């Protein structure tokens, strides 16, 4: 079985010095080596090194930590954001992410079949259950969500996201993990004067990329059996991105102190988007002259996917130590891929020739209220990737511009927006008809992978419930804030009340329940 590798290199403790080392890397030499690496990778693709006999799935799952309330000084501090001690991440078996409050789990890749899907769900639950026990000992809880909204006790969100220090002329975000590439982005010669977060009634400027630490996500991976087929699967993935994003929207609110002073609660509710996570990632990392985050274009060939990484603008030309791994033969290109952010992106790696793999990383979906809901998106994406290309489903003829518009409509309005689709009969479909076609083919894809009808329906039921009820996590959050406002509360109090209820409901349902149980 071929699998993908999620290892990260070790780092020393002198962060400023390591950032300076990165800034000393010759950008032209870095680009030349990445281009040479691309030729190595394309040769291996032509030779069939990345071909497999089966589809494989995996999942990256991000969380943030909050106070569990036991040791809170006041009611206002309950479920406030907390920094995760690095030693605790090691005990959990989790990985660090951008912010000190983040933790990330990466599942072991599994074949796409009933046993593999069960293994994915069981691994998430087993590891998360153990992590929750570790966190509880520190008075904290890990939360699965799209965006946090209660800042750390005694701090504002603005302070937490913009606080930085200068060490030997190097600007370092105080609350960012020791990820060199993120710190280096604020210090290089092409760094913008500031990184700007832009969303309805929200504006924030920071001198680092730390505002991105507002958001958390899940990222399903689908490894294609034959690398040459990746573009066809990729183009289908672009067409399902909008509809799946629409069902998963879960970040309609920012922390209260980030809103403009003159914005009213009614305006925030009326004008706010359902998935502000998309806007945060794009506006912050696209600051200045670089466009690092975007909805990507269709692919014609697998070589095109490699060339796009080479052609992507480089903000952080980091040096690379080459070892004995197979993918060390194109290590500089892999390093550049680390800052090649697209909402759907191809990945090529593998520690050995036998484990070399070509896969699609699906990045639009926010963290979800429960594990079952998260696995539903993983299964739906995998099922669609199995079924749609094999069927030559007519939605591939949906114009790319329409697929892109679907994506940003979903960001703004969730499934209540006007999304376009072409069904199996070649007819235009919207609304419930769109999702009937989409989920039928996701189910059929899981059946092709060996799932029984009962198993396939089990995995997809959380998404069907959202279609049937018309309620997404973003809708649930909006309704709770609206109800609190109707009862006479101010916006900040209403937002905190909603967020605390979200965490409390999740504490009872994260491992075994589903979002539909909340309704």
UniProtKB/TrEMBL annotation:
Pfam families: GCS2
Domain of life from the UniProt record: Archaea
GO molecular function: ligase activity, forming carbon-nitrogen bonds
InterPro entries from the UniProt entry: GCL_type2/YbdK_subfam (IPR050141), GCS2 (IPR006336), Gln_synth/guanido_kin_cat_dom (IPR014746), UCP012666 (IPR016602)
Protein's UniProt name: UCP012666 family protein
Organism (species): Haloferax denitrificans ATCC 35960
């Amino acid at each position: 079985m071929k699998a993908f590798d999620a290892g990260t290199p070790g780092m020393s403790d002198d962060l400023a010095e390591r950032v300076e080392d990165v800034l000393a890397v010759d950008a032209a030499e870095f680009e030349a080596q990445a281009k040479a690496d691309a030729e190595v990778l394309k040769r291996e693709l032509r030779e069939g090194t990345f071909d497999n006999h089966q589809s494989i799935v995996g999942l990256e799952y991000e969380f943030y930590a909050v106070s569990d309330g036991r040791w809170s000084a006041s009611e206002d501090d309950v479920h406030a954001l907390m920094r995760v001690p690095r030693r605790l991440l090691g005990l959990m078996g989790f990985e660090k992410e951008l912010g000190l409050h983040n933790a990330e789990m990466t599942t072991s890749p599994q074949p796409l079949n009933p046993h593999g899907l069960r293994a994915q769900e069981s691994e998430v639950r087993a590891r998360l259950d153990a992590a929750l026990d570790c966190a509880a000992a520190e008075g904290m809880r890990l939360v699965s969500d799209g965006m946090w909204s209660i800042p750390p006790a005694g701090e504002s969100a603005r302070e937490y996201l913009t606080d930085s220090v200068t060490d030997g002329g190097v600007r370092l975000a105080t609350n960012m993990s020791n990820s060199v590439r993120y710190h280096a982005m604020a210090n290089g010669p092409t760094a913008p004067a500031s990184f700007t977060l832009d969303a309805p009634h929200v504006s924030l400027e920071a001198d680092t990329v730390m505002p991105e630490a507002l958001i958390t996500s899940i990222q399903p991976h689908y490894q294609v059996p034959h690398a040459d087929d990746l573009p066809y699967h990729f183009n289908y993935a672009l067409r399902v991105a909008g509809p799946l994003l629409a069902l998963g929207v879960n970040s309609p609110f920012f922390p209260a102190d980030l809103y403009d002073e003159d914005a009213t609660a009614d305006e925030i509710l009326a004008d706010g988007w359902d998935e502000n996570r998309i806007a945060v990632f794009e506006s912050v990392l696209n600051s200045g002259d670089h466009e690092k985050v975007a909805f990507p274009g269709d692919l014609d060939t697998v070589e095109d996917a490699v060339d796009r990484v080479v052609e992507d603008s480089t903000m952080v030309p980091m040096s690379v130590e080459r070892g004995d791994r197979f993918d060390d033969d194109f290590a500089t290109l892999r390093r550049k891929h680390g800052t090649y952010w697209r909402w759907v992106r191809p990945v090529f790696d593998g520690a050995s020739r036998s484990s070399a793999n070509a896969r699609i990383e699906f990045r639009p979906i926010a963290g979800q209220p429960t594990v079952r809901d998260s696995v539903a998106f993983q299964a739906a994406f995998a099922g669609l990737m199995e079924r749609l290309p094999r069927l030559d489903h007519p939605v591939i003829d949906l114009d790319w511009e329409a697929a892109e518009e679907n994506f940003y409509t979903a960001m703004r309005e969730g499934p209540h927006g006007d999304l376009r689709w072409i069904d199996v009969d070649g007819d235009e479909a919207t609304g419930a008809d769109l999702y009937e076609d989409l989920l039928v083919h996701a189910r059929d894809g899981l059946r092709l992978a060996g799932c029984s009808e009962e198993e396939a329906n089990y995995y997809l039921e959380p998404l069907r419930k959202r279609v049937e009820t018309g309620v997404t996590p973003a809708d649930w959050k909006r309704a709770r804030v609206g109800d609190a406002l109707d009862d006479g509360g101010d916006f900040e109090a209403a937002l905190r009340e909603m967020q605390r209820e979200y965490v409390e409901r999740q504490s009872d349902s994260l491992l075994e329940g589903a979002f539909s149980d909340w309704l």
